[in-house]
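Example 3.
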Amino acid sequence: MVASKSWLEIPADSHFSIANIPFGIISTEGQEQKRSAVAIGDYALDLQCFAKNGGFSGLPSIQDKLSVFGEPTLNSFAALGRPVHKQVREYLQDVFSEGSASSKVLKDNEELKKEALVPRSKAKLHLPMQIGDYTDFFAGINHAFNVGTMFRGPANALQKNYTHLPVGYHGRASSVVVSGTPIRRPNGQVILDPSKPDEPTYTACKRLDIELELAAFVCTPNKQGEPIPVGTAEDNLFGLVLMNDWSARDIQTWEYVPLGPFNAKNFGTSISPWVVLMDALEPFRTKALENSTELTAYLKDPQANRAYDIKLEVDLTTSDGTNTTISKTTAANLLWSFPQMLAHHTVGGCPMNTGDLLGSGTISGTERDTLGSLLEINRAGKEEVKLSNGEVRKFLVDGDTVTIRGACGVENGQLVGFGECVGTILPAPPLQQ
Amino acid sequence: MVASKSWLEIPADSHFSIANIPFGIISTEGQEQKRSAVAIGDYALDLQCFAKNGGFSGLPSIQDKLSVFGEPTLNSFAALGRPVHKQVREYLQDVFSEGSASSKVLKDNEELKKEALVPRSKAKLHLPMQIGDYTDFFAGINHAFNVGTMFRGPANALQKNYTHLPVGYHGRASSVVVSGTPIRRPNGQVILDPSKPDEPTYTACKRLDIELELAAFVCTPNKQGEPIPVGTAEDNLFGLVLMNDWSARDIQTWEYVPLGPFNAKNFGTSISPWVVLMDALEPFRTKALENSTELTAYLKDPQANRAYDIKLEVDLTTSDGTNTTISKTTAANLLWSFPQMLAHHTVGGCPMNTGDLLGSGTISGTERDTLGSLLEINRAGKEEVKLSNGEVRKFLVDGDTVTIRGACGVENGQLVGFGECVGTILPAPPLQQ
């Protein structure tokens, strides 16, 4: 479905076409209070202001719920459920459509346009949701295979359970930050001398890495003890964001046996600020990677095509401003879909809350220029990434900036994109004496 | 230090002596709104009511903060910091002391006594804190050794990192429930036939276990990127509760490689409702177990004696009401202290928030009647626990109730106890088709 043309000038390569309408939380100079907005072209439409000035007059069903747009997170809006998200998104598409009846509320109201249409360059973006719990899965099978090969060889690269269930672990919700927040290099215990594998050193991380991921926000909760069926699980999801799950590989190697990653991951995880709704992604659904394992009942999805053909890329920018694209891949490189992750997460009765975040795991293709982590690109530290300015990298150095971008569709003014997920590495704090 | 005698009749074996004054959240019939209380003898003092009626008139420093006691969690009170907790606790001890000046505000006010002193049997107890993130450590070295021995033999029972850092993993905050909440047996994937280790079956858990733990609530946050030094970390803690980290051993065995426990743990974790403040536990500090490993700087605590001699016991009650005490141990059986756990958790910059929960890991002694999990008591399913009514158990059956109790001191009307942490097993929901 091609969305209508907008009366608002939207650049053809904008991630925020009228086909998108992603939701986020903004504040502005002079109005520091956080509130909801949607991104459209080079603007953010301030939904609190829009609602207060009759912008939603054409959508009677939402009238008693407009206060949600004045809240500092999207949780209350998300909790209204997918049918409401769909109505609001479609209404806003109509508001921005050339010649539509609803367009009058904004297009013909110069004062409201001035007040509610904030240039995005002037909007400060915040975490879109209050995240109760954050879970990170491992659904990128190429990544799991590549990393498993490094440790156990290709024959034993994937653990026995890998194709039977979406492996995941509980992450640290408090460390999730919005794109643009600097990331401080962590200190921790690492093995510096492989010949002394029992003698850790307390030092700044020397193998600081990225993980290119997608992540889904939960909108509709389930009660403790009541699993979410895979067939309807998509309706429990609000939308997707890009994620960079920064990883301290050397800390991870020493700490992760037997209970999994901990300080290697909990110093920071960045997400993009605009939540792209499930309905906006609908036209870009595609098959996930083939799983030849016969799945057990609770993971058998009656619908195929639950992956998304989101084109992803990762840029590394050095402190001198030199930019190098180090990876280009697609989000279709996942073995498990978000509905399957949610069905598995709740099969034992785990309660999900509005605002919970589910990461996909690192998304890698099979070729060297399609990998989602430096660990894979540099083959466990054996090779180097050549940057445009002649420098090389195995892992990140202080001052490096990593930018993830992702979008669906082609550049005809109909892109459904995520914008960027950006973070710059700050030096580690002094070691404690 | 022996606390004063109270004018209120407090049974000599009460966990809630005047030496304790633990904080919790109650509601009552006719006043469903959640609010703060302290436990004292057979009563809960409703702090909202007490504050509204001038109960805190003798504590001028708290006058502008009294609204915290009307909130539905203790988070705002906890966030005021340890010096305030200490003042309030000492003031309330004074209020309940025979012959003290402050005792008049309650003792001589029949109307307020009637309104604010709620018989505990009539108070409904709720989760004391809103838990942002929950982390579970593995600091019970006897448990780690016992379980490690089952899988790798005694020579390799402990992983290389075990004595160098407090191993832990991120748990699931949304699944933490207050004592008394029934626990539904989880469904999941398990290997039923050990000769077919690649063929999981979707079934109700058959090896449902307990884990006897202590847990600490965080009061004072740190900023992302700013570690908490071990020497002052105790002041970042609000208090302790008992915890039962219910565990599905068969689900765990299949799922936990390589990222750690997930659905084996996230169906439910029970905590006791009354938070015993760090200051109340001060007289019961003792040395943790000896660690012969030379610790790195950030884990070297200038103070010894950070463990607590809390006497713990676990009862298993069958659905016919027969009670069997299956374990008696002490919380001193930990290798790592809560300040060390907090220092390690934040060494890489992980931000802690008020209300975050840190579990100790399973607390076991070395003898068979001092173990903190059925897995250890039954030696990985090889032996049985004999119950008082002639039944036997390897793992829990539906209808079983597990009660954890813990207290410091001797029974002379000066006990500092936690009350109980109770949960009853409900049958698993039907399998999905």
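The first helix of chain A runs from residue 47 to 52. The mean pLDDT of chain A is 96.
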